[in-house]
Amino acid sequence: MVGDNDTSGSEFILLGFTSWEELQVMCFVFFFAIYVVTLTGNLGVIILIRLDPCLHTPMYFFLSHLSFLDICYSSTILPPIHSLAIFRLPFCGSRRINHFFCDGPPLLALSCSDTRASRRVVSALVGFNVLSTTGFILLSYSCVLSGVLRARSAAALRRAASTCASHLVSVTLYSSSALFMYLRPGSGRSSEHDKVVATLYSVAVPMLNPLIYSLRNTDVKNAMRKAKGRVLSSFSRHSSWPAERRGPSFHG
Fold this sequence. Notes:
The chain is mainly alpha-helical. Helices cover 70% and strands 2% of the residues.
């Protein structure tokens, strides 16, 4: 085990969620199960969109890339906001990061220099990225709802409201947790609270996106039923081959 005062080399040590060995096994099983669900759901969406010609539209092309990004994001857990400027800061104390991935705020907390400028840069980048994308999404949804209202169709309005509401749940969960994580003042931070908040946008959102964006969609449901029918028919056809090879049986 590396001691707390280990400062040799340039490597950092992630402490994870807990130091209790009993809870470490439970955390591993829990998050491994979440990762399997995330990988299966997003990979299933990609394969389904590629195989079904009815889903070869720009919207589903975008959803397949979103699923691909969720797979990469949940597999690496390394957000792109860690610039080289953070790693150029002097770290003269412990290199043990009290987090489960190499995030900006817990890394800045280990520096022995004045990190106020770096914290402002990180907060500005995250704030601009999250707020601009959230504003663009809200503007897009307002245009969709405006078009539906002009059509004056109650069924279309209910369908659009249901779809937009489920999408907004994912957007709100991601943006609110990211803003809360990176825009809070450093004086009132808690490492345990940061881990919980980081879990929302780095683990929960990639797992929920296939359910929210794709599996509640009628076209995707129809494609899943057709794919299931093809798999079952292929399985029944392969299972009937041994009987066909044996040929007819004769009884005396």
